[in-house]
Amino acid sequence: MSLPETIDRGLLTAAVVLIVVAGAALLVRIWSGPSMLDRAISLDVGAALIIAGLGAKSAIARDPFYFPIMLVLAFLGFTGSVGIARFIAVRDRPSPKNGAETTGRDDGHHGTGGEAR
Question: What is the C-alpha to C-alpha distance for residues 83 and 3, in angstroms, rounded to an integer?
């Protein structure tokens, strides 16, 4: 093996080790996430780690077979995380504080909105 091939192999090995360590940390985050939104984001990061692992496998094998699979997984991960975040974010929204008047407006104003000051 030449020096560039040795360096390439070492960098790819380091990348795989980092992906595995990130996956372990991700499992801890999914297990202990304080809210469902944290867990949903962790699952999205898990999809990104799977894509990174497939990319590393493709680089080690020097085979572009997994590229279309990576593209499909990226699309599914994006659409899934957007859909989950849209529904969970509404559910996890904190309730208004005591005494705060709510009108359904989301622009920071309180009251009826039709009053001239």
Answer: 47
Give the closest residue to 72 by CA, choosing from 91, 90, 54.
54
Phi, psi of 44 (to 5 degrees): -65, -40
Burial class (CB in 10 A: 0-12, 13-18, 19+), 104: exposed
The number of beta carbons lying within 10 Å of the beta carbon of residue 74 is: 14
Q: Measured between alpha carbons, how far is 95 from 73 in angstroms, rounded to an integer?
A: 35
**Identity of the amino acid at 16:** V
Start-to-end CA span in the chain (Å): 80
pLDDT in tens, 37-46: 788 788 889 9
Amino acid at 78: F
3-state secondary structure of 22: helix
pLDDT value of residue 98: 64
Enclosing H/E stretch for 78: helix 67-91
- Alpha-carbon distance of 61 to 13, in angstroms, equals 12
Q: Residue for token digits 């390439």?
A: 8
